[in-house]
Amino acid sequence: MDRDERKLTKPLEVIGRYKYALLVALLGAGLLLWPGHAAPASPEQGASPPAGAMTLRDTEEAMEAILERISGVGRADVMLTLQSGSELVLAEDTTLRYRGDVQSPDDYERSSDTVTDSGGVVVTQEKYPQYRGALVVCDGGGVDAVRLQVIEAVSALTGLGADRIAVVKWQGADSGQK
């Protein structure tokens, strides 16, 4: 019986030891198999967000829904401004050819090709947007405790400091709201 238990726990120990590597590998395989994974639009077609990416408006709406669940907030409207948008870094295969001595070449040629696989281009990194500021208009914006909770929530979601988040009271909201 002890030997049977050891057979079962050994694979669990291996999984436990390499859980992060396995998670990254599974996540990568899932992204490669994700339907709708296509090459990004060429510049003349106009840039479109990658499949599965949230637009700025989607992010604002999701934040509104979350903030409205905080006690005392009531209705919420969120506006985010961006310092920089999201960006995909594509894998490139770069070739450098020298003519003459490597230390001081007479001439060199450099060429780069975007790496593709059966699902489209290979993305090596996704850079998320950097936010410049946030404005939250809510029913409870006139109550200090609510304002603090909203600032902390928006800061946690965007990475913004409290000095870049404004929380104000919704026009016509009850002044006694808590």
Q: What does this protein structure show overall?
A:
The chain is of the alpha+beta class and 178 residues long. The chain has four helices and nine strands; from the N terminus they run H-H-H-E-E-E-E-E-E-E-E-H-E. The longest helix has 16 residues, at 2-17.
Sheet with most strands: strand arrangement: 1-8-9
Outline type: extended
**Uncertain stretches of 5 or more adjacent residues:** 37-48
Helix tally equals 4
Mean pLDDT: 76
Counting DSSP E segments of at least 2 residues, the number of strands comes to: 9
User: By helix and strand content, what is the structural category?
Assistant: alpha+beta
Give the strand content. 25-35%
Largest sheet: 3 strands, mixed
Distance between the termini: 61 Å
Short description:
With 178 residues, the protein is of the alpha+beta class. The protein has helices at 2-17, 19-33, 56-67, 144-158; strands spanning 76-84, 87-90, 92-100, 105-114, 116-117, 120-121, 123-127, 130-138, 165-169.
Index terms:
178 residues; alpha+beta; 4 helices; three-stranded mixed β-sheet; extended
